[in-house]
Amino acid sequence: MAKVLVVAQCEDAKKWRDNFVKHAALFRSMGATAPVSFGQDSDWVAVMLEVKDLDTYKKVLSSPATADAMAMDGLRRDTVKMFVLDGHLPV
């Protein structure tokens, strides 16, 4: 399993949130395990999820279906940044 964080800017945070919650099937196709965590701060949004296979996730992330979902959500694709969280800090 891999833990992934994606951040991006959106045109309208409410529009993004209202549409984002409709993409469960898309996240399942990415190999996401539940739950998918998300939040926003002004026009920035963040999504954190665990995926079964990082290659599958990346393939679906770059697919036309994901591009369509991001467009519907009002996400600015040129601002999308993906991080694989591979470090841990015990506290």
Task: Describe the protein.
The chain is an alpha+beta fold and 91 residues long. The protein has a single domain, classed as Alpha-Beta Plaits. Helix content is 35%, strand content 34%. It is built from four helices and four strands. The protein has a four-stranded antiparallel beta sheet with strand order 2-3-1-4. α1 crosses α4. The mean pLDDT is 95.
Summarize the structure.
With 91 residues, the chain is α+β, with helices and mostly antiparallel strands.
Shape: globular
Number of DSSP helices? 4
Largest sheet report: 4 strands, antiparallel
**What percent of residues adopt helix (DSSP H or I)?**
25-40%
List the helices and strands and how they pair.
Blueprint (H helix, E strand, L loop, with lengths): L1 E8 L3 H8 L3 H6 L2 E10 L2 E8 L2 H8 L2 H10 L7 E5 L6
Antiparallel strand pairs: 1-3, 1-4, 2-3
Helix pairs in contact: 1-4
List keywords for this structure.
Alpha-Beta Plaits; 4 helices; 4 strands; 34% strand
